[in-house]
Specification:
This protein is mainly β. It is 3% helix and 33% strand. A hairpin with a 6-residue loop joins strand 7 and strand 8 (111-118). The radius of gyration is 17 Å and the shape is globular. It starts with 6 loop residues before the first strand and ends in an 18-residue tail after the last strand.
Length: 141
């Protein structure tokens, strides 16, 4: 069996402890087609659809990269769900999730990294207690 460039993966395999959107949906910029004056949105090579990205917090306590970007090919910008009561971030799940391995040579030592793509995003049931933002302790007066 030959594997293609984008390898299918389930949400349970990619984010077993859940995934939480930590930013807004953004356009992915095609830096080769863009100029200083005009930014051009990237298009998916296979479908020709515009590409969007969302930053996702991986709730796995052992994850090496806590925040990853998932690119989504869609004619219109994907809409993120609202965060559940008491949670700072909305729990999300992806449809048509795939990953591509690549070598990240940006640090001191090259390492294998993963690029995620999906066809859609929607709300999910939170799987873990999401860490709350750190707060300063009250100062005694």
């Amino acid at each position: 069996m030959a594997l293609g460039r984008n390898i299918p993966i389930s949400m349970e395999q990619a984010f077993p402890h859940g995934a939480y959107a930590v930013g807004a949906v953004e356009q992915v910029i095609d830096f080769d087609a863009s100029t200083r004056e005009q930014r051009v949105q990237a298009k998916d090579r296979e479908s020709g659809l515009p590409v969007w990205a969302v930053s996702v917090f991986d709730a796995d306590p052992e994850a090496r990269a806590k925040v990853v970007r998932v690119k989504i090919s869609s004619r219109t910008p994907p809409v993120l769900p609202q965060a559940a009561a008491g949670s700072p971030f909305p729990a999300v799940a992806f449809e048509g999730l795939t990953f591509t391995a690549y070598v990240d040579a940006s640090g001191n030592r090259p390492r294998v990294a993963w690029s995620f793509r999906a066809t859609a995003v929607h709300g999910a049931t939170p799987k873990a207690q999401v860490p709350q933002p750190l707060r300063r302790p009250e100062q005694a007066g």
